[in-house]
């Protein structure tokens, strides 16, 4: 089982989840398609290229599916913190530019085989929803060698051994009887994401990660609820929103990340209509607009790179994520300019060992997050994430990894 499940190890539990996964949830489609898949992978000649696992989004069948003790991979909503107690706090949880709390983008359950300290391992991505901050971030990322730059995109790695204080050492049964071993930290009543260290001075019940979220909550109802909480002592908790039922406009829509394999998509099977300019589709930009973008790409190499990016992505147009933790894996860059050189990738700030590429987030995610097309709406070509090769296990529970943001050329000059 170990070897056949090896490729799966990236995005799902292998040793825990095991073979019964398919039978537990009959609604879940198999990760790879029918007939074509088997023949394809055998005949594949591209040996030099590591197989890429794709992440695609689907609405969770029921809300309980993405809870932390089921070790989910998910996008949007609130994070299912792996270590539910020692959350990133202080400056770690805020945008380095505007200082506002970051918004949860996605998390990937990606355990590392043969590393007992990373029996469970989840990567979490957060981002400031302001495009102005992302633009500044994109400039700052080149300066990493000269000390820790400010970031508006942050990736945290959290890992646990099989025996730990938070979860059973036995695999989840997926029969809704699974429970975590202990409660998590109190989180902010507004964002449901970060630690709620600040307590409302009137009711002493509502908790917030920041003054901003306290103010937002106050204006949108807590002003009244607060009085109610004070006057009705016992039932007070019912007035506060349950964690996980925080106002929907404070986070992006929630999805489960399911996996697929790029290898099962034939390179020339891309449906012409389907594949055309999919990356642009969320903006509803017509071909003419696309052409004008293309014209603005200065170098031929950018055009070439863009064309091959488009071709590759069109094989599986719904991908929001590309994952590969093989030693020879590389991100699929949208443009040849704005790529990091080896020297631009820092070493691990905890163990000083090398970072290696692990996954990239595709612009299609913005479509699923219903991000608009206003001047300050988020936009990116791709975001590549590099993580500690040794999955080191030191100091803090949530270790910050390195993200490289690649923007479209027209976006970079928009400022
Ligand atoms: Zn910001
Ligand atoms: Zn908050
Ligand atoms: Zn209050
Ligand atoms: Zn390290």
UniProtKB/TrEMBL annotation:
Keywords: Metal-binding, Zinc, Zinc-finger
InterPro entries (UniProt xref): PDCD2_C (IPR007320), Znf_MYND (IPR002893)
Biased composition annotated in UniProt, kind: Polar residues: 1-13
Entry superkingdom: Eukaryota
Name this protein carries in UniProt: Zinc finger (MYND type) family protein / programmed cell death 2 C-terminal domain-containing protein
A Gene Ontology term for the protein's cellular component: cytoplasm
Gene Ontology molecular function: zinc ion binding
Pfam families xref list: PDCD2_C, zf-MYND
Signal peptide: none
Segments for region (Disordered): 1-49
Biased composition (Acidic residues): 40-49
Residue ranges occupied by any MYND-type domain in the UniProt entry: 188-226
